[in-house]
TrEMBL record:
It comes from the Bacteria. PANTHER family: ATP SYNTHASE (PTHR15184), ATP SYNTHASE SUBUNIT BETA, MITOCHONDRIAL (PTHR15184:SF71). This is Uncharacterized protein. Keywords: ATP synthesis, ATP-binding, CF(1), Ion transport, Membrane, Nucleotide-binding, Translocase, Transport.
């Protein structure tokens, strides 16, 4: 099934100051911004809005609206990613984190887990250095020094394998990213899955640091303070693949239930930290305790960190994650100590 999306790379190339230019044709900058980031689906856009954007870019509506295939989920074996914010094959995956939150470790881990026969991994971090960059570069099969090198390698390898391309956010700021996407589409090099990281941590303070994303991984300082890794926020991290009929309905329903539980658990956690004598109802006690266990279950040992943690990395299939989450939500683990769920793979049948 095909769906329409806005050709953001074309818009930004032809209209550099897009939100400012939108005012000149009577469009609200917020509307244009939300269309570009995908917050407003293209099918909900007014015809006059699309016509005005085409006028600004001096292009036809056929050029402005392009077809994209529905995404295919790429399973990583990382529980919190596959369950809450799966990778969309051929999509854009963005990390939002302050420095030191582990976004580069996660990215390095994802690249490490790739089947190299099926997928080529390329890294371009020419404009960045510092802690964590080496994790990504070490995991990548090909390290590029220039954007021209990235294009040439992607074209060469893309004829044989899928491409995972890891880059830093400076390529968004320079516009090179959108130009590269367009050139790869012209060469019919697909699917290319882009992983965008922000080592400087500036993305945290911006509304649309990367433009449209298929998957967003939002990192959480509170999880880090308690040494819960990977510190990906399960509530604010999202994937478009879970917003439609692209995955199993059971997965979607479980994810919604888990997020609802974790939202309330976090409210209760804040309440308890502010008032140690908080008098919780029996229902809230149950939610709090199950939230603790669910949060602990989503910690996971990484292969790239084995040397430092002395814990063997684990890989957990999504079907096992779904089964485990259902058990936790059902209360099958209510009797287990929370620390027994920390950094395990799948739940033991008896715990």
């Amino acid at each position: 099934m095909n769906q329409l999306k806005l050709n953001v790379s074309l818009l930004r190339r032809k209209v550099p100051n897009l939100t400012s230019a939108a005012k000149t044709v009577g469009l609200r900058p917020a509307t244009v911004s939300n269309l570009c980031t995908g917050k407003i689906p293209i099918e909900r856009a007014e015809v006059r809005t699309l016509a005005a954007l085409a006028e600004l870019a001096k292009c036809s509506l056929d050029e402005l609206l392009i077809k994209s295939k529905d995404g295919e989920m790429i399973e990583t074996g990382i529980k919190i990613i596959d369950f809450f914010a799966p990778i969309v094959k051929g999509g854009n995956i963005g990390c939002v984190a302050r420095p030191g939150m582990g976004q580069l470790v996660v990215l390095g881990e994802v690249l490490t887990r790739v089947d190299k026969k099926e997928t080529c991994t390329i890294a371009y971090f020419q404009n960045e250095n510092g802690p964590g960059i080496d994790d990504v570069l070490h995991a990548a099969e090909i390290i590029c020094q220039t954007m021209d090198d990235v294009f040439q390698e992607a074209v060469s390898e893309g004829k044989k394998r899928d491409i995972f391309l890891a880059m830093d956010r400076s390529v968004i700021e320079s516009g090179e990213y959108f130009s590269l996407q367009e050139k790869l589409e012209e060469q019919n090099i697909q699917p290319v899955t882009f992983f965008l990281a922000d080592p400087r941590g500036e993305a945290v303070d911006e509304n649309e640091p990367y433009g449209p994303l298929e998957s967003l991984w939002q990192f959480d300082a509170e999880l880090i303070s308690r040494r819960y890794y990977p510190a990906i926020n399960p509530i604010y991290s999202t994937s478009t693949i879970l917003e439609g009929s692209y995955v199993d309905q059971h997965h979607m329903i479980l994810q919604q239930k888990a997020k609802k539980l974790l939202r309330r658990y976090r409210e209760l956690r804040f309440l308890i930290s502010a008032n140690t004598n908080a008098n919780l109802s029996q229902d809230d006690k149950e939610i709090f305790e199950r939230g603790q266990r669910l949060e602990a279950y989503f910690t996971q040992a990484f292969y790239v960190a084995e040397e430092f943690t002395k814990i063997k990395g684990t890989n957990v299939h999504l079907k096992d994650v779904l089964y485990d989450v259902q058990r936790i939500l059902n209360g099958d683990t209510d009797h287990a100590k929370v620390d027994k769920l920390m950094y395990i793979a799948s739940l033991p049948e008896k715990i």
